[in-house]
Amino acid sequence: MFKYACLNDISAVGIEKFTGNFEKTEDINEAQGVLVRSASMHDMEFPDGLLAIARAGAGVNNIPLEECAKRGIVVFNTPGANANGVKELVFAGMLLASRDVVGGIEWVKANKDDENIAKAAEKEKKKFAGTEIMNKKIGIIGLGAIGVRVANAAKHMGMDVCGYDPYISVDAAWNLSRDIKHVLNVEEIYEECDIITIHVPLMDSTRNTINKEAISRMKDGVILLNFARDLLVDEEAVLEGIKSGKIRKYVSDFPNPTTAGAEGCIVIPHLGASTEESEDNCAKMAVKELMDYLENGNINNSVNFPKADMGVCQAAGRVAIHHRNIANMITKFTANFGDLGINITDMINKSKGDYAYTMMDVESEITDEIVGKLQAIDGVIRVRVVK
Fold this sequence. Notes:
Layout: E1 2-6, H1 12-15, E2 22-24, E3 33-36, E4 52-55, H2 65-70, E5 74-76, H3 83-98, H4 101-110, H5 117-124, E6 137-141, H6 145-156, E7 160-164, H7 170-175, E8 181-183, H8 186-192, E9 195-198, H9 212-217, E10 222-226, H10 235-244, E11 247-252, E12 265-267, H11 276-296, E13 317-324, H12 329-339, E14 344-352, E15 355-362, H13 368-375, E16 380-385
Parallel strand pairs: 1-2, 1-3, 3-4, 4-5, 6-7, 6-9, 7-8, 9-10, 10-11, 11-12
Antiparallel strand pairs: 13-15, 13-16, 14-15
Helix pairs in contact: 3-6
């Protein structure tokens, strides 16, 4: 029996996916698995028995990834589970920026007591006139789960679409409409597009991707959309761009003192994935990842350990080893099994950065003796008997 803890309210649709082999606990010190959404885990002390953390969402800034990797705690996220919800809000933001719907609504509120409001509206509405998005050129920076959906939908809306992603995955490429222009230089997006939207993860290398220099290359009157992370954009430079007329509107899903209430900014209170469907999808995906890892040792969608999937073990035993990504580890593992006369029937070894993960299926039951020998190897972080 495995125990799991929830640090936030997790959709019941997801929790219901747990089998009878899992039991909820309110004490994280008893848990082998943790489900989390937004709760910060950076100052938490992790119990020795904690094996995995599943984030019901894409961003993992609230989880200390390196510390988890050092202790052999696998951190999962749920890429793509909330992609449609974010995609739809991107288009809402695009339309709000293209046509001054917000300004028009505020005018109606301010004049609600005017008995001639209908007549007055006909005179005033020209102040809120905007442009259509059809035939406009949109540039998408980042063609992951969300970026691909935005690109394909934009094409269906009659837009001229180009996307930039030097690291596009095979799956994303297959899902991308053949009508989308894949540019090799982001400068082309800056210089040619009427609307630009960014969909990349926040890392040191992507921080302030949209900066003063990038903005200077953009067309006058560009609409800029940010539904990924606020720190991807130098928002002080954006405000300067709005004042100069370079940027027509900046739409962000991340309220902060820089942009909240600022002229030319439409700031939404982080609603991108806040739909019932997105929360359900994220919860179901997180639970599935957690169960597959705890029961079978398989890793899918981890942000700190590599993908490794051997299905359900059909052999007598399976051992999972978290270790440093250094030379000769496999030789040492297999030597220990060989010394004890244990035959290995299947094996997988994958690495990600400084860390690696090895699973082995063997023909004999895995004893405490073999676990001890494996754990004693220099560079091994955690040894777990899965079956």
